[in-house]
Design goal:
The complex is a heterodimer of chains A (about 260) and B (about 250). Chain A is mostly beta strands. Chain A is about 5% helix and about 35% strand. Chain A is globular, with a radius of gyration of 18 Å. By secondary structure, chain B is mainly beta. Helices cover about 0% and strands about 50% of the residues of chain B. Chain B has strands spanning about 5-10, 35-45, 50-55, 65-70, 75-85, 90-100, 105-115, 115-125, 125, 130, 140-145, 150-160, 165-180, 180-195, 240. In chain B, the strands form 2 sheets. A 7-stranded antiparallel beta sheet of chain B has the order 1-11-12-13-14-2-3, with no helix packed on it. In chain B, strands 4, 5, 6, 7, 8, 9 and 10 form a 7-stranded antiparallel beta sheet that branches. Classes of the chains: A mainly beta (about 260), B mainly beta (about 250). At the A-B interface, helix 1, strand 1, strand 5, strand 6 and strand 7 of A face strand 3, strand 4 and strand 15 of B. Strand 15 of chain A pairs parallel with strand 15 (about 240) of chain B, so a sheet runs across the interface.
Amino acid sequence: MSEEPSRVPLGLAAGAAAAALLLTGCGGGGKAAAGAAGAAPAGDLPQATTYTTLDGLPRDSAPPADGPTTVVHPEKTVPVSAEPGGPALAELPATQLKGPTWVPVVESRPGWRRVLLPSRPNRVTGWIPDKGLRAARSTHVIKVDLSDREMTLAESGRDKGTWTVAVGAPKTPTPTGRTFLLASLAPPEPTYSPLILPVGAHSATLDTFGGGPGTVAFHGWRDASVFGEAVTHGCVRVPADALDRLSRVPLGSVVDIRA
Amino acid sequence: MRTITRCAVALGALALPLVLPLVPAAPAAATAGGTGSAFAVAATGPVAIPATPSVSSDAQRPERDSVAELPDNPLVRAGALNAAAWSGHARASAADVVVSRLGLEAAAVTAKCENGNGVSHLARATLDGRKLQANARPNSAVQIDLPKLGNASVTLNRHVRDRDGSLTVTAIEIVLPLPGGVTQKLSIASATCGKTAAKPGDPGTPGGGGEPGGPSAGTPSAPAATPSAPVSAAPVPTPVAGDLPVTG
């Protein structure tokens, strides 16, 4: 709990524009290293973040569903095992990219939750103990159809909106499978988008990109002519109104990317 | 000037005990009631406060967490924050609660949930100078007109029954629509408990039924297959200032 209340950074000014309130941030840049501030000592175990690759953990293979998803937030760093009660192979910190960690549950056993993790390889999962988790429910699913180059936002099983988007180019395709909304970032000096919404997946063809770990994300784009094209390095570029809707989707919500 | 109207909307008839001890009783009488969960204070919206403290447990012994004082924030002050949960039971409390923008003050706010039944209690609580009932009927709503901000909705003793039969009782829930379609929400003393054991698998998770469901070797013994019931809707994220080079 100790690090979480420090994320109470925002003012509730009477009459102030709510959007401005929302964009008042915690400070800090993008180099949120594994084992973020406030987490327990990492020891020798790798941290489950967008910067790391985790070995020996099971991969997600179940098809996504449209129904509600249980999402969990660890109050502090928790161990990650390949099976319930197994030895810890990694640690899941309480924060990701300076925001709270929220990951979707894909399977439950008594006392244990199997969750999607934000590391490489894509679709990596791990079991974490149920104790000390804050659980909540997301009714949102973000669906991306790479063939149609469309993104659909569903809520409680009903489609709430569909937008034509830009997806990965043939040589740098957007990876398919079930992943999740990892973070909501407001770049201090936005160049192409006011918000960056990284997901748990990474490019399968680019180990790094622009100095980052090849993380796939939703974000806006200055030139609307790209929508409907397969031109990106793996990210999904979306129109401004779609980005606005995505900004209100809870972290940990499932992202279903299909070929 | 603020105008206050009151209405009571009873969503279900519940036999409510009026005595609400702050310290959980011995769990010897606990039945297999699924996961209990509780938190003292949480907020979503422009002022986001993670559930503090927050516990969730399906064990037979209570899991407790306490925080002496809520970290500084522009929305709410509170101290002596407690949360406790175990199988089929949950309790939460906060003391010296002040929400200055609404003129809300309470010496103590508590919520308790036991095997699908819940009750909340307020001690020396006032809203805009008016005394609030110590034991309000479930889902008692109070509307407040706040100049420049709009209508705030304050619900006392809020009861919400989930599809799985679990109950969430929140002593005070405040919803404040803000300009731009944004909503500030504040929950004070919230407890969730189930009445019956949860179904095998986790119906709230994608693919939950598509994988082996039985406990595996090495899994600590548990009273039943009782995946935790989510306590609430997941929060709308607050963007953090930062950047990450992504595969644009």
